[in-house]
Protein: MYO1B protein
Amino acid sequence: QDNSFEQFIINYCNEKLQQIFIELTLKEEQEEYIREGIEWTNIEYFNNAIICDLIENNQTGILAMLDEECLRPGTVTDDTFLEKLNQVCATHQHFESRMSKCSRFLNDTSLPHSCFRIQHYAGKVMYQVEGFVDKNNDLLYRDLSQAMWKANHSLIKALFPEGNPAKINLKRPPTAGSQFKASVATLMKNLQTKNPNYIRCIKPNDKKAAHIFNDALVCHQIRYLGLLENVRVRRAGYAFRQAYEPCLERYKMLCKQTWPHWRGPARAGVEVLFDELGIPEEEFSFGRSKIFIRNPRTLFKLEDLRKQRLEDLATLIEKIYRGWKCRTRFLLMKKSQIVIASWVRRYA
Structure:
């Protein structure tokens, strides 16, 4: 219920993770259609870059305003920090405060005077400004680091490498907010170089009990995890896509013209295959390098046909093997009978 500086930076990290989720899934999804030359209906989705900018902008962001207050000479309090936010962020559509110059929230009794509210991607969160300045200013000062580095205990000395006189930095140590912002930036840079796989966990109830499904709680999680936008983009586009070569290799046994070997381009083979199977044209599209299938049921149909065809091929192989085995045995018996008969006629 009471959110302070700690929850603020945690929510900031969640916003950055949501932003990279949008960039690497929803945005990439639509860009792939453009690359492949696929016609489709563009889906508008909420990009939370505007919220991230509200927090991390180097000039007008909340973290920048907080650092500026911590470095400013004179009397600095949480109230002066809130006053600065009310001046700089008053017109931002995702920032709310009763003390701001914007009169939209002057009569909002749910918003105390010592708080500000941010409309995050997952919903609105109210933050108590009390303690923001002190917690952000919680620095490890140089003299303390140097004292710890002079300790005789090797572990303590290793924990404070910045206390080494040879590495003295005369700059003011970074604030807690700045350190966290730098860590998040490093994390985002690392994630963007990877090929991510997302596992979304849904909590069905707050009691940690079985057989209880709270609809409101689940719907709330689905909304702030971005699953609705993902489903909307997938439904408007194509649920499955695959390069022509592996697609032809997997399903070529379903068509007599492509089985067992197709002589020609892979795309032409896939076109012949889908035409032979009679799949409706609205269910798939041919991209520059991939086949796009709109509905999962079409893919399930292909898999069922392939499974049945594999069973038929297994039966055929078994039948041919049994025929060969029986014929080989018969020819051996026939050869033996001729030999026996010739010997019998010789002595008859």
Observations:
- The chain has three domains: 1-138+174-237, 141-166, 241-323.
